[in-house]
Structures are given as C-alpha cells and as structure tokens.
C-alpha cells in the first residue's frame, strides 16, 4: 500500500468520525438512531474504491474498539460491539467494498445517476439487510420487524446517496480510482 493510499484511508476514517459528531436522531420505535456517518461510508466507497475504502473502515472500527468516541452520540469502546447498532456498524466495511467494487467497474463511464444507484444498492439496501436482522436478533424481535423498522432510514439514506454521488462526480479527477486507472 502506498503512502498516499494510507493517508486517504486515515482521512476518510477521520471524516466518518467527524460525521459522528453530528448529533444522532433517535427514532423511538427502533433502537438505532439516524446518523450522518453512512454518508461517509458511501463517500469512502465511491471516492476511494474497494481496497482503500475498506481499509479506511477497518481502521475506523479498530479506533472505535480501542475506545475512541467516534460513533454518533460519542460512543466508542467494546460495548458498542454488543449493542443493537452492531449489525449496521459492522456492515460498513462490506458496504464500502461493494460500493467501491461497483464504482471501479463503471469508472470509465461514470455518471451521477450510476453512483446514486450504486450507493443505494451498496450503501442503503445492503447496510439495512445486514444491520436490521442483527438488530432484531439482539433485541429479541422478529427479523421482519427489524426490516420494517429500517424503512425509516430510507429517505435520509437516499438523500445521502445522492449527496455522495454528486460530490464524487465533481471530485472524479482527484480520486485514487482515477489515478489508478491512468497507471494501468
């Protein structure tokens, strides 16, 4: 891994931590709040690509496990790994990998609408399909109830998918994916 890739991975781990400083919005009927951090997950995937994006999220998870209060609401430490948000939290590296993989596949013909679709599939649907059943298992509710509760995240997550797609489309020329495409 090049120094530049390590710096990008660290910067995006920090960005996701900064997005965690935005206060979470509790929903009352589901124990997982609405946060801004999934925007960082989508940005990492479609800006950094599958390898560097995944490394940035693994770094973020390690930092949280070490006790840094990087999750929304100032949470950190090993206790978050047994709470109802763990499925969502641990789905982030998987989502980043999938978003990065799909983005790299369409990079040469990149359009904003393609990135929106990729972010919705990898950053909205995939995170919910992993997070909701784990949350349901931890809270001793049905998986169906968890998935229905996760519908509350869809409007905000779709807005985040659009924001991430627009930002990355504008920054395409400085993306590590673009630089790797030229080096091939």
From TrEMBL:
Transmembrane segments: 30-48, 55-72, 78-103, 115-138, 144-168
InterPro entries linked: BioY
Compartments where found: Cell membrane
Membrane topology recorded in Swiss-Prot or TrEMBL: Multi-pass membrane protein
Main location group: membrane
Pfam families: BioY
GO cellular component terms attached to this protein's record: plasma membrane
Any GO MF annotation of the entry: biotin transmembrane transporter activity
Source organism of this protein record: Paenibacillus crassostreae
Keywords: Cell membrane, Membrane, Transmembrane, Transmembrane helix, Transport
Homology family: Belongs to the BioY family.
Organism ancestry: Bacteria, Bacillati, Bacillota, Bacilli, Bacillales
Protein name as it appears in the record: Biotin transporter
């Amino acid at each position: 891994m090049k120094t530049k890739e390590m710096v990008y991975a660290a910067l995006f781990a920090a960005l996701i931590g900064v997005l965690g400083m935005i206060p979470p919005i509790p929903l009352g009927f589901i124990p997982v709040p609405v946060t801004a951090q999934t925007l960082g997950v989508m940005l990492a995937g479609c800006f950094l690509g599958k390898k560097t994006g995944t490394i940035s999220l693994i770094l973020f998870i390690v930092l949280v496990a070490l006790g840094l209060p990087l999750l929304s609401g100032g949470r950190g430490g090993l206790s978050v790994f047994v709470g109802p948000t763990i499925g969502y939290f641990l789905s982030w590296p998987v989502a980043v990998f999938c978003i990065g993989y799909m983005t790299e596949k369409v990079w040469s013909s990149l359009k904003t609408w393609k990135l929106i679709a990729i972010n919705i599939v990898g950053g909205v649907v995939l995170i919910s399909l992993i997070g909701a059943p784990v949350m349901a298992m931890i809270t001793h509710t049905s998986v169906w109830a968890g998935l229905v509760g996760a519908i509350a995240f869809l409007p905000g997550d779709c807005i985040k998918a659009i924001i991430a797609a627009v930002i990355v489309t504008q920054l395409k020329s400085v993306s590590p994916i673009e630089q790797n495409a030229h080096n091939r």
